[in-house]
């Protein structure tokens, strides 16, 4: 069976590839949206922290023989703790300043983090095997479904929906949103707002590290692996709406699929289609698809 001259297995393979890429876009843009929406900081270091999660997992598996499943939890916790230090030592001083200061500060952090790992590992790829439990593929009738890629999509969607639920539907999420809008009022109820802000940033960067662990078996692990991806992720956040949690999730997954199908019908445009969509969306709706107009 063919659709527009493309066989169904080839079409579904590109759909899966788009979903995998979209899963990374969704988690990364979700972390950015959480940090910007609740802390009002444009975190350009997100790509470097994504890379950091992947390389820490490689280090744990290579040097200490720690399993992928343990590192899937440990790497985000380590990077999240590093994010807490960044927030406490650096970011807390610029919250009341223009967004440009946060952008420049996190850009500087990106250069420092990437430079440190590049000085140790260079720019060549690091070997990263798929966990034994997820090796191979499953026949689903119309195509062979790689087990690891299916796991990436499922894990990403579960984490994204859980994050959205906590922030939008729970009391903790209500405290977080209220704490960014009126911290003095929230502190009057006995809530430690500075600690809450610190942990929020740590959680946001932990999401980036989690995406890095998931991405490592399907994206070459190098100290520069976050550079190109983070530009696309910022475009995803802008299209979905700065600070919109659900907007980041849906837009990330959707643009991944669009990018995948573009590779089938017009491969030359696959690397620019996201930015073309961004320009169109900004012309029609400057706040983004799910953003709130001021």
TrEMBL record:
Segments crossing the lipid bilayer: 15-36, 41-60, 66-91, 103-128, 148-167, 188-217, 229-258, 265-284
Xref: CDD domains: TM_PBP1_LivH_like
Coiled-coil annotated spans: none
Location(s) in or outside the cell: Cell membrane
Pfam family, one: BPD_transp_2
Keywords: Amino-acid transport, Cell membrane, Membrane, Transmembrane, Transmembrane helix, Transport
Membrane topology field: Multi-pass membrane protein
PANTHER family per the UniProt record, alphabetical: ABC TRANSPORTER ATP-BINDING PROTEIN, BRANCHED-CHAIN AMINO ACID TRANSPORT SYSTEM PERMEASE PROTEIN LIVH
Similarity comment: Belongs to the binding-protein-dependent transport system permease family. LivHM subfamily.
Protein name (Swiss-Prot/TrEMBL): Branched-chain amino acid ABC transporter permease
